[in-house]
Structures are given as structure tokens and as C-alpha cells.
Amino acid sequence: MKLTLGDSWLYFEWTGTLLIQFLTMALCQVSAAVIHQVEEALDEDERERLLFLCRDVFTDGFLPTVRDLLDTLSERGKLSILGLAELLYRMGRFDLLKRILKMDRRTVEAYLHGNPHHLISDYRVLITEIDENLDKSDVSSLIFLMRDYTGRAKTAKNKSFLDLVNELEKLDLIAPDQLNLLEKCLKNIHRVDLKIKIQKYKQSVQEAGTNSLSPSPVPISSWSLKEPLRNGRNKEQRLAEYPVIQKKPVKMPIQESGAFLLQPKTQRYRMQSKPLGICLIIDCTGNDTDDLQGTFTSLGYKTECLSYLQAEDISQALQRVACMPQHQDYDSFVCIVVSRGSFESVFGVDQTHSGLSLDQIRSTFTGDTCPYLIGKPKLFFIQNYVVLEGQPEDSSLLEVDGPAVNVESKVLNPEPYVVHQEADIFWSLCRADVSHLEQTSNSHSIYLQNLSRQLEQGRKRPLVDLHVELTKKMYDWNSRVSDKEKYYLSLQHTLRKELILSCI
Fold this sequence. Notes:
Layout: E1 2-3, E2 12-13, H1 16-27, H2 32-41, H3 44-53, H4 66-75, H5 81-90, H6 94-99, H7 105-114, H8 122-133, H9 136-150, H10 152-157, H11 161-170, H12 180-188, H13 192-208, E3 244-246, E4 277-283, H14 289-299, E5 302-307, H15 311-322, E6 332-341, E7 345-348, E8 356-357, H16 358-363, E9 378-386, E10 397-399, E11 417-419, E12 425-433, H17 436-439, H18 446-457, H19 463-478, E13 487-493
Parallel strand pairs: 4-5, 4-6, 6-9, 9-12, 10-13
Antiparallel strand pairs: 1-2, 3-11, 6-7, 7-8, 12-13
């Protein structure tokens, strides 16, 4: 049935039972228990983002803690269950929608599409989406550029992009209808993708013909969280357009007048889901499954182990796991492959030399093919046993420290700065001579053994740091053995934040 409730509602089609439930949620005051659960589940960055989203609603000037803010808004009748659901939706915390509010994402989307008078303005949503897409170097550059308008003292105090925006709002340099300065600075740091996002916001406000100081009635599908990207991706699961990746390493600018002395706080991937994610172990040699399964189970992963697969079976297994809907509730994904192969592919147990390409393994879990993992870290550990004849002496270990474009990846265009298509990927590839498998019937990978030890002993430390130490261990091993016994390790990643494989 169709129902119109005043000027605030567009029509919904509900059954009688759902309509009663919907109206109850809209009128129900948020309990203290629910507020407590929400606050406990948010990390520091998410709490800062929530306070920023509510800045137009809470007009008392000083913003309290998340608990005090939500409690005050609820007492004043400004926060219903649906209002809280909107907040969690805008922050991408669909797991809390389900676990605490017992609501699914579609219910909230129906509410936002049908109710033009949202709790949160589209301007606040825009700024938080930009915030989620900026890395530390982007924020540092913006702070530096903004000092021409705010003075050095004020910009030096800011530690995050939202802090910077708050200061600029106080100086009337940024407002819902005043975003030219932000556009200019984003262009100067080569974040044209975010500049385009602002332009789309402006266009939606202009088309609506409303004052964007108040929440805009433009449907959220027109530009916000559910907007499709140019390459066909969908921004579900807090999807953001991928960060700018530079083709070549660039030296950091010289610090001037303390502008960079106060760096933004380190952004960290959320690792709080239980389990942390699915860990797929494909061991075609049968030697390393038990150790790997024990390690990643102890880290909090749900492991699935497959042994002795042909190349075609490996491909099918990867595609099946990539389509699992459980990924939407998890914070990460791990894939481990142990196999014979060539420099470009793995063979499984096949005797043929076509195999499954390494590029296909990785691309199965990118945003195009696995939308549930968009914006979440995807880790790959590959032990490939190959014929190493002619391997250059100086390439025994290759460590690409920091965000790097995978040499097998494709870029969008040949400009100096490009938007990477495969964000949030950690790719650790180790090649060893196939003779390792011929020495004994139970030849464990030295690389995987050391990897397991590093992850178990350093679970509270960043993964990139652990891999640096792993590289040193492999270097020590190689210095003591013959060429046939060496391991050739490389790391390439497009991680945008610090990654710790533990809920801390």
C-alpha cells in the first residue's frame, strides 16, 4: 500500500506490519543501553566522524563525547532509532545496524530515499567521504596549503582533515555553499577524483534549487554513498574512490616553519569483526596447511583449507569464495597459495605449463569482482616453486616499502599521477626452486614458517613492519645456503592505512 505522511515523506510500499514497525522506530527514543553499545563499538576515528556529522544538529557549540551527544539528542527528541540508523549507515557500520538495531541496510536506504529531511546534511556526508579517502600525506599537504588562508599557527594545530575543516568553517572559508577553496587545494595535491565529488555535490544542490545549509532533498543515490563510480564499481561498504598512487618514489618536501611537525594521527584499518575475515589456504604440496591454519585461526580468521587442486579448480575456488556474502560482515580477507608454477602463474597439481596466472588470483578479489571487500585489506601470500635457472643474483629479495603499484597491475592513464584500480591489496610473493619439493616428502616452506612465527609473535604490530623483519630473516637464510636453496621474496602493496592483524 502507498502512504504519504505530510511534506516530509515520499510514498513507501509497506505491509501493515512493516508500517507499524517503521513508525515505531521513527518515534522511539534511543535507550541508554543502545547508545552505550554503539559508543563501545566505534574506534577513535569513527567517533570523530560521528561528532562531525552531528555538528549541524547539536548547536550548543561545544561537542561532547559520543555518548553525551547521542544521549542529549535523544532527550531533546532529535534522535530516534531511525536517526541513529542513518548515522551508522553513513559511517558504513552495517554490522552495527544488524547487531544492535536489528535492521538491515535496505530498510535504512528506503527511509533515506523516502524522507528528504535527513538527520545529517549532504554537506556533512560529502566531507566525511572525502576524509575517508585521504591518506596521511594528503592531509599534511592540505594543512600546508591552507596556511596561506589561515596562518601557520592555526593550521599547525590540526591533526586530521576534519579538524582542518572545523577550523576553516569557523573562519568562514568553507561552508555547504562555499567549497571553491577546498576544490582548489584538492586539485593542487592531484586528488582530482575528490574534486569531481565536490562538483557532483554542487550540481545536485543546484538541481534541487534548495539551500544546502539544510539537508537537501536530493535522493542519496544521486551522488552520495550509493553513487556508481566511472569504472562501474559501487560504493557499498564505505567504498571510496581509490587514492592517488605515484608511479615513481617521490622525496618528501623539506619541512618549513614547523608546518609538518604535527603530523595527522595514523589511520588504521578497522579490524574488529569476529571473525576478522575468511582465510583461504590452497596448498597443492600438502606440506604447510596445518601451520598456516593454526596461525590464522589464532589471529581470529575463519580458515578454509583446500589441498591438491588443479589450476582450474583453484580458479573455481577463488571465484566461489569471492562471491561469499559473509565478506560484508568481515573486516579483511586472506588468500594463501602454495604450488608449483612459473614466474607468472601457478600450476596446482597439473603437469601442463599453462596454469592460473598470478594476476587472475589477485584480480578475483578487486572491487570490480568482489564488491563486499571494497575498502578492506586483502592479503595474499604466495609460495611458488619454479625452475630458477638464470635468476639474477641481485634479485634475491625485493622489498617495496610503502604503497606501490604492482608491476603486474594496469593503470588508468600515463599521467604522472594515476588512480590505482587495486587499492588495499598486500601482495607477498615468494619464489623458490622446485627442487625444494624433491628433497623430502615433507618439505616445509622456510618463507611460510617464518611468516607464521612473525604473525604469531608480532600480532600487535603493523603488518608491513613484520614483513620487513621477515625479509631480513630470509636474507639471513639465503646467505647460508646454496643458490638452489634460496627464497626470492617480493612485497608490493597498495595499503592506504596501517594494518594490524589483531583487534586492539
